[in-house]
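Researcher: I'd like a candidate sequence for this fold, 383 residues long. If you have to choose between options at a position, lean toward the conservative one.
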């Protein structure tokens, strides 16, 4: 299936919960009508972000080829582009105008396929308008992108089959969803076993108070709906994913004084995590793994996440979960894996997850996503 799934004359049916429907409608207005470009974001992570680890040249080149009208309406807060995507089937949750989809379309090649789903008609229209442009730009005989107007809480209703995707990506979207469990559960359902979710999103340093959720600007900017990061880890595990791996993180600095005052002592970070769907029957033993240097763009070493850099031909001992990711995923041909006879319980408390804290990683890497509002581009808040 390639092309633009016809946009229904009526809106796709939303969740039966009236609170969710109201939030959906506000977010659609925010991104569909109110914001003309990423410059318009009150708290723009998109226009000022820089990644805290080097971006491979192939990814930079693919991004450069994306049409300017698409790029202009990019509202993401990270770069959810994993390694080794050639020939993969990828789903982008909340694809917006399609920037990440078109870059991935180049990277998966003609044998791969990218589907974007978004509930905002104006943005789906932009992505549909440029399907043929990118097909020709990349020299493909037929397009390898499809854009669907629908809700990511209801992927099967939108025509996305269970167990059909190699990778699910998302860029600054889950923070806008009232029902985050439904989104993660649906993502888990549509992934093939061994597949992964690779997502960039905003996270909070504390649980967000309920009053933030009523403020349409705070919600529209992702600050009203960001998850406290340990709650994200717990939710991912509850729906059946492995423990998320933290790939990269940046602080989000709010330079708009009004918003800063509203958020008080809550801080925000942009974090990119990868979550695998591993088989239910697992070998829970440590392993010695050796990277073969075979993943394109990474001949000498591969930074799998912020805690694991695998150098070519160097054996490293890893815990049972990392061993399972490497054994069960598309990376399995790229590693030799020797199971060690050392059974190991999985971690169970938040304290054991401090290496997954995006705020600590952003501190360590000294990186920040500056929040540059139109009203206050230069300075900080005087208070
Ligand atoms: C911050 S923008 C990011 C868009 C895109 N990922 C990008 O990087 O440019 C959030 C997008 O998520 C979409 N979105 C939010 N909630 C959604 C939902 N429940 N189902 C489908 N799309 C949703 C919005 O319509 C909007 O396009």
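Model: Candidate sequence:
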């Amino acid at each position: 299936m390639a092309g633009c799934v016809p946009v229904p004359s009526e809106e796709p049916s939303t969740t039966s919960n009236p609170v969710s429907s109201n939030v959906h409608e506000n977010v659609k207005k925010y991104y569909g009508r109110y914001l003309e470009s990423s410059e318009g974001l009150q708290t723009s992570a998109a226009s000022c972000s820089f990644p805290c680890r080097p971006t491979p040249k192939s990814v930079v080149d693919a991004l450069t080829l994306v049409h300017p009208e698409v790029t202009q309406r990019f509202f993401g807060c990270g770069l959810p582009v994993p390694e080794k995507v050639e020939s993969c089937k990828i789903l982008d949750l909340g694809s917006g105008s399609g920037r990440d989809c078109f870059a991935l379309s180049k990277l998966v090649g003609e044998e791969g396929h990218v589907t974007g789903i978004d509930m905002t008609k104006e943005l789906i229209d932009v992505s549909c308008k440029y399907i043929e442009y990118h097909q020709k730009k990349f020299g493909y005989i037929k397009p390898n992108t499809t854009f669907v107007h629908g809700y990511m809480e209801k992927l099967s209703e939108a025509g996305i089959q269970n167990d059909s995707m190699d990778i699910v990506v998302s860029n600054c979207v889950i923070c806008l969803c009232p029902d985050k469990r439904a989104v993660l559960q649906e993502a888990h359902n549509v992934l093939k076993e061994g597949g992964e979710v690779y997502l960039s999103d905003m996270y909070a340093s504390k649980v967000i108070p309920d009053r933030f959720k009523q403020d349409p600007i705070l919600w529209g900017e992702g600050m009203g709906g960001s998850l406290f990061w340990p709650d994200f880890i717990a939710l991912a595990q509850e729906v059946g994913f492995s423990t998320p791996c933290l790939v990269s993180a940046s602080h989000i600095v709010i330079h708009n004084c009004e918003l800063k005052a509203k958020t008080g002592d809550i801080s925000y970070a942009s974090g990119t995590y990868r979550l695998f769907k591993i088989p239910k029957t697992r070998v829970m033993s440590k392993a010695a793994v050796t990277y073969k240097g075979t993943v394109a763009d990474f001949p000498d070493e591969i930074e799998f996440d912020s805690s694991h850099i695998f150098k070519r031909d160097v054996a490293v001992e890893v815990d049972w979960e990392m061993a399972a990711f490497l054994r069960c995923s598309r990376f399995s041909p790229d590693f030799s894996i020797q199971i060690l006879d050392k059974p190991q319980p999985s971690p169970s408390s938040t304290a054991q997850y401090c290496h997954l804290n995006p705020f600590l990683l952003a501190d360590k890497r000294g990186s920040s996503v500056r929040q540059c509002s139109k009203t206050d581009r230069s300075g900080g808040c005087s208070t």
